[in-house]
């Protein structure tokens, strides 16, 4: 059983993650983890902080001679910003945040945890936490890759600008996305996206969008139809909506499929040289009956615009019940290219978890037997 | 900690569910459970079987004098069809199903579990299992209702027909949906939906659609921002995509929000008489930071067309690798109104689980303290 | 991931269990389950009820053509006593039990669940529930047996009578125990145990004892040292103390080992023909570092005397706070031989769970690869 | 839901723990954590390393202004020994350990994880990991203490020396134990224990023993009779046997009770001024029906002698299958007083977990309502 927990505040000393249940014998490439952390910081329209943070993963447990041993892995990522915050953290030094910001965890968090200051809530709710998840996902992806699973993504939409995804092999689309500061493989759309982001910056507004994350090389039969909480659709959906600001998900073109007759949706089978089968299409997005069917796993995720807008938004000061404007916290204009990296990480996690369940999890050699 | 498991094959003797972790002191209304089971069988365009099955829940454990006691609840639902199938179940009596049907669990299930016959797979993968979940959900909803939570749904789309949802209070929309055999509150659209279903029947095709399920009366602070797998968005998404044929979900108008600037998406706060706050809108769909924010929880779910089409679909006989047509199994044309009831049940489950986590779970009285 | 839940009251219509996560392809022998259920009802000194109940397991889900399919298994066991109780269950027909019985769940259960009647508590707390666990364990043992694991037990002590366990191979000790109505392989002690039981019956008292449950044929490396809750010692201990009236457990002669120096406790290694190793002793009871080490897993469990004594025991009527005697409920004098069967069942469960974790769990064939 | 994971090797840079699910508003006393860490290092007969390590807990996440916020807590404990080991960790620098040591995780660990070197196994299996658990437990105990729960322990036996525990109130016994380097409240026995330890040092041997850990001030109704894995006896037993070298546990005098008739075991009820009840004895050890009954929770745990003995023990070099002696690693003679602190920590954990389940877990204020 694979499991992980993360801990850490946005302006605390560090982020920490523990992964338990990894098989022994996985030679971990730490630069791969750092590469993913760097990708999370990419993107046109990121804010000032991205220049401060140069995230590096430090593995403090679970590796001996560079390999996993079956022991839990501990990862920490230093917050370089910490030095600027340390003294502010002295009791009272930081002003209270009593006016909840629309779209943030501030209000429900204060009410849930009985706090009159939103600061402790936003420190944990911040997307900064996704750096820990990207590191966890980078480990999971290395495990999945040992079984031939490749994961990548692209940005399909930023604000109103929707890309025309060229009809190319998925790895080429990944490469095009990687080369763009919008992570969009359609350069015409990418240019329009940049203009949208510039416009949003001028109007002190923010943008969301849609990402498409895909996994290739999957074995048949990850997940199960047998019990509701073992269906892979459910686990993928949970993984996606566990990401800050991701509020919608579909496996394949689900909302489009809902409008079509079954004969145009369900993927026919064709004989294959191999003796195995081919499919006439992949509108199921790679999952049938809650299980991988050997086709690419295609997931679309909708991200809401960043909740922190430069433009004032109406709120209420909970300290006195009077109308007030939400206080501005330094933020980005658009983080969709970064979120795409987090969706890759979480998909990698779900797939690694399913591989360990299917194959058992003591050692890589045993899993491969 | 609330948990449940279901068991049962589509044509076996019965479905069984066990719910563990219910508080004591909940007076259970079994007719309410049966009412939900009947609602699951409703809808224009259901097949023959709906006339055979008149599902009734039988509680065989966990109730003393009509009240929960803290002990696990066992529910069973007899398959009235069983008498017609019992002898077929004798070894070999049922023909093997070796040609996987597109859109079903047949193919991945056979490969995962090492079977050369899809029958054991489809018997469990069938949507018949959702009857057990509706019963479980009906119990969870009674627990949630004890804390003022009301859940209902409507059908927004069947195939290409999209309803214009009238601007009415949610409970009135629920009532309109309840009165229609399409579960659609827009009677004009409902009529077009029926025509679509009739047309699909003529062309031996099937239809999917979109449902909107809503929860009212929620307390602030169910779920948590603190750890990825405790975010309520994630749990709601998992619950929805754990339902057979549901492949997409959004919390509020997530895909629409992805196209808009932040200032038009995030819900402003306004002072309220009560001293509490009002919101200028509910585009967050009732969840901020992975927690309920006191607004209605609004979930849209996309259902694919039923996978069993009367029209032949190309497949491969895995027994000989030769092209073949998928064998037709008796089925419905459209089950969106029924699926809406299952989404209500699963949402009820997630909310009951979150209430028990927040309030503790020994007795209703203790939860209310 | 293997998991199970049970439900059912002692005098309700039936017990129900659901097992989720079984691999496909296990040919289940239902008579083996019934045999275990019969063994649970054995033993010198059982009460009247054992003559009423002739437990039979009914599988209502998860088997197709006698084999598991990967789908959850549902098991139910009818309470033959039900017919005598059904009408008593009408509201108010059964007298309230307001005087908690020493050694029972009555008092903490009433307080925990906010009840002024202990009946709903004792109905679930009763050892009757162990019939469901024996059925679950009988399934788990068939899975474990497919990997060469054999489980058995004997009674080492009843009340003050402690057996001299002859120095024979474990399977012979199991056979001797099986042949005795005390489940004790030492016939001299067995006779003294019967006399103790007869004496206890005369004095309206009850007896407990000690059982030794052993598993043979275990692979090396079930469980793990890597995380506290994955240590097999912990899981075995939890499984034993989850059994009604079992209050102590040791892996090997743990309390004896605590008094000896390390050089006399730790099991030396010797070369083996096979190239593998032999051990000079098995004082570790088959577990080192939280993992099976290939030696027999030897567990001793201490059972308290049955809490329901014919002799009056002082209590307090919680309805009025006045001293009162605990009401007598029909019961046994000694159930140690029966409890031994439950310890076998729970050990079988833990080992099956560990096998599925180690080998993966889709099909028996895949587990064997 | 409260959960924790630990990570860290014995000679790695640090130990790390993450605790998820703590309520907000707990003012954490870090010196209390350090005090527990120091207690874990106490005891007559500890080895050289105890002088190197002066463990200090560093909280890197989950505290704002010294209080919990509902966010996960991250704790790290630096291994001061690391500086001496860092370069040894370079690939190959450390000699392989191919001869498994009796009583250690070496052999099953190597076989389970497919390693030909035991070093990665012993690095994680080492009791050094318990420092992380003591820190976790120290947090859990502060939560439990907020609800009036006090936890302490004493050493009852070291090797063959069994103490006569004076008939004093439990807190006085704790104080006497605290004042002794054997943690034994019977000074006569303590002196004999020291002599045993000195003798063992001379003979290059090691000793185990028995600890008694007690919790006072418990509410009635933690745990549940309703489902096997929710019985508190099971969770306490798992917590105890999850500790390195602890191999036996009993709730109250369970093995003694097994020899007595029920009328002498079960704790009678007496009326109390308060209107609540008193008990004539506490032979149930504070748990009836898997729930706390308001009496002191009394747990006895048996620790095996330390597995690393100075005296040579026969083993086999798995590299060549030849007989060899187990390599000596620096170690202690007796660690029972230290283990007692770990049993306190794990009991604290189980009780904090049960409190959160019973009371809900958003904030201390809400738990107290």
TrEMBL record, chains A, B, C, D:
SUPFAM superfamilies: Chorismate synthase, AroC
Residues annotated as binding NADP(+): 40, 46
Catalytic activity, EC: 4.2.3.5
CC per GO annotation: cytosol
Cofactor(s) recorded in Swiss-Prot or TrEMBL: FMNH2
One Gene Ontology term of the molecular function aspect: FMN binding
Pfam family, one: Chorismate_synt
Enzyme class: lyase
Cofactor binding: number and manner: Reduced FMN (FMNH(2)).
Binding site residues for FMN: 124-126, 244-245, 289, 304-308, 330
Classification via NCBIfam families: aroC, PRK05382.1
Self-association state and partner proteins as the record states: Homotetramer.
Protein name per UniProt: Chorismate synthase
Organism of this sequence: Ornatilinea apprima
Gene from which this protein is expressed: aroC
